[in-house]
Amino acid sequence: MLVAAIRSNLGTEVDALRPLIEVADAWDPARAQQLDGSHAHRHGAAADAERAATDGADTDQLVVTARRLVQELLRALRWTARDVLGEELLRDDVVIIDQESG
Q1: pTM of this prediction?
Q2: 13-36: per-residue pLDDT in tens?
Q3: Which of 2, 21, 35, 92 reaches 20 to 30 Å from 11, CA-CA?
Q4: String of DSSP letters for the chain
Q5: Per-residue pLDDT tens for 42-66?
Q6: Measured at the alpha carbon of residue 71, what is the angle toward residues 54 and 76, in degrees to the nearest 5?
Q7: Domains of the chain: which residue ranges?
């Protein structure tokens, strides 16, 4: 059930977020491609967890796999918030107030 929820979330991101990033982002397709890579990592972690659960892995292996999945999800959520949806990245201001560098 967790893996299905993760896959559903990834599908929603692809359907809703990716098209917006492609047109709103000054980096053109680069950030959308990074989002695709992040999705691939999350899909892989979810598939590993599903495989471990259905293949009869022992408890220790299930714990390791679940921990990896959670770590990947947290990493991806932080990255998305900071590097995909960060306010400073999606601003359309020509002049950024309080800018510290050139």
Answers
A1: 0.71
A2: 888 888 888 777 666 678 788 888
A3: 92
A4: -HHHHHHHHHHHIIIIIHHHHHHH-TTTHHHHHHHHHHHHHHHHHHHHHHHHHHTT--HHHHHHHHHHHHHHHHHHHHHIIIIIS-HHHH---SS-TT----
A5: 889 899 989 888 888 899 998 999 9
A6: 110
A7: 2-89
